[in-house]
Task: inverse folding
């Protein structure tokens, strides 16, 4: 657990150094929009965050599909494992 905290601290420090070194304002153009004066580090970090959110949504959608399919297959298996209700048949006649 200590290793995880140390790794998180190093990544956080690297992000802080990155943000401090890339404070130059940039102009962003996308389709008809134009945004001026945003720091380069903020633009890059927001892009990374957007990519993470998009990838997470795609992964979550796949997880839900697989989970639904898993439940369908479990229900099918449970239905096959249930014993069939016995039908009443007349007893066989004994020959003497």
Result:
């Amino acid at each position: 657990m200590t290793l995880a905290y140390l790794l998180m601290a190093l990544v956080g420090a690297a992000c802080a150094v990155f943000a401090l070194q890339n404070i130059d304002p940039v102009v962003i153009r996308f389709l008809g929009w134009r945004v001026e004066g945003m720091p380069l580090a903020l633009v890059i970090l927001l892009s990374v965050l957007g990519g993470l959110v998009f990838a997470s949504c795609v992964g979550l959608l796949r997880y839900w599909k697989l989970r639904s399919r898993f439940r369908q297959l479990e229900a099918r298996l449970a239905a096959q494992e249930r014993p069939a209700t016995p039908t009443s048949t007349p007893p066989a006649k004994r020959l003497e």
About this structure: The chain has a mean pLDDT of 86.
